[in-house]
Design a protein that fits this description.
Blueprint lengths: L2 H50 L4 H12 L4 E5 L5 E5 L11 H6 L5 E3 L5 E7 L5 E7 L1 H74 L6 H33 L6 E4 H15 L5 E5 L4 E4 L1 H18 L6 E8 L2 E8 L6 H6 L21 H11 L3 E6 L5 E6 L1
Parallel strand pairs: 7-9
Antiparallel strand pairs: 1-2, 1-5, 3-4, 4-5, 6-8, 9-10, 10-12, 11-12
């Protein structure tokens, strides 16, 4: 499995874990707080009734606990320091809490930690005695611990399900990508075979004619040799382009260097003007546009774009080249005033060996891989290639990196 797939699975598991723990943890804590609030309400209720009947505080407290069926411990600390438990519950203590603890719970409920955690409230009653009201939190804590354990088990199961579903979705997506890649490769091999078969057929035909001495005139022989030589050059160009595409497809860590794109574009435009004096060439190029990438591949990118214009547009068709930096992006657009491409090409983009006009490339020396190489180089540099109709009427090749 690819590294990015593993990262995606881990990310989905982390997101699922975070959501599950957040929601489940919030629910568990809320339940615990609600139960503690109920305990505090019981203690406060007993205290209010004791305060409302100061003449008989102990009996009032015992009657209220019995009537409300509260599981409370009630103790009495005399002014002489003697402590006596007058109502027992699951909270067990035979000696009074420390003076500091009792003082902290005077007229307000506090949590006391120890061998048993409990909530405590103390009231001063007549005669200087101290009434101690306490309720154990043991059952609440056990419930909270059970809920946390259930939450962890639930989260683990949910993570397993999320990992399984994510893996299945990625596997299905990878299979689709592999099927699409296989179809593209099959089409590529079929088209490449056809492109190679054409010059081979020409060379083989002329070779047989020469071997059988069917071409006798010297001028015809020279024309034949010239034709064979042009087909050999065409095969060399096609093989070179195929090798370049293979290199671009296999390179995972292309060489990186700082490329002065401004100087590079201006240099190629200068040569283009010399070779095409009849064309009106307009340039809008920002200064000091630098790009981290492969200078050899960027040169090939510009060569292919300008070569396409040379081959497939009239000799006097205008050209406009713009290079500008927009925030963190570099935009390169090359427009021409030629015939452009079919409308479907602007929707489909570029594909391997996709000749939008099948009749033109082979006659004009092209391998048919120009746009494929351009797209591969743009992809290598983390950019995006767009083909659209130019404002000049022809094709606009827009590169965004």
């Amino acid at each position: 499995m690819k590294r990015w797939s593993i990262r995606f699975i881990i990310l989905s598991a982390l997101i699922t874990t975070a959501i599950s723990l957040t929601i489940g943890g919030f629910a568990s804590v809320s339940l615990k707080n609600s139960q503690i609030e109920t305990v505090d309400a019981h203690l406060t209720l007993i205290a209010d009734q004791v305060i409302s009947n100061p003449s008989a505080p102990v009996s009032t407290a015992l009657d209220a606990v019995s009537r409300e069926d509260f599981n409370l411990t009630i103790g009495l600390l005399s002014g002489a320091g003697e402590f006596m438990v007058i109502n027992r519950s699951q909270l067990l203590f035979e000696i009074a809490p420390s003076e500091k603890v009792l003082k902290s719970a005077r007229n307000s409920v506090v949590t006391i930690d120890g061998s048993q955690q409990y909530r405590l409230l103390t009231l001063e009653i007549s005669g200087g005695d101290l009434l101690v009201l306490a309720n154990s939190l043991e059952e609440i804590n056990q419930t909270f611990a059970r809920n946390v354990n259930r939450l962890l088990i639930f989260t683990f199961l949910i993570d397993l399900i999320a990992i399984l579903l994510t893996s299945l979705l990625l596997l299905r997506n990878n299979r689709k990508l592999q099927d699409d890649s296989l179809l593209r490769m099959q089409k590529f091999l079929a088209d490449a075979s056809h492109e190679l078969r054409t010059p081979l057929t020409v060379i083989k035909g002329y070779s047989e004619m020469l071997s059988k001495n069917q071409i006798k005139e010297k001028t015809d022989q020279q024309r034949t040799f010239s034709r064979v030589n042009s087909e050999i050059i065409r095969m060399e160009n096609l093989i070179h382009d195929l090798l370049l595409l293979a290199e671009l497809g296999e390179t995972t860590d292309p060489s990186q260097e700082s490329v002065d794109l401004t100087s590079l574009v201006r240099g190629y435009l200068s040569d283009f003007r010399v070779l095409h004096p009849d064309r009106a060439v307009v340039e809008e190029i920002d200064e000091d546009v630098f790009l981290a990438g492969s200078i050899d591949h960027l040169r090939r990118l510009l060569q292919n774009i300008l070569n396409n214009i040379s081959r497939h547009t009239p000799v006097d068709a205008p050209v406009k080249v713009a290079l500008r930096r927009e925030a963190k992006k570099i935009m390169l657009s090359v427009e021409d005033g030629g015939p452009g491409l079919p409308e479907s090409a602007y929707q489909e983009g570029s594909h391997l060996l996709n000749r939008f006009n099948p009749r033109r490339s082979s006659k004009q020396g092209g391998s048919g891989l120009g746009l494929s190489i351009i797209a591969a180089i743009v992809s290598e540099h983390g950019g995006r290639l767009q083909l659209r109709r130019s404002n000049l009427g022809g094709l606009a090749v827009v590169v965004e990196i």
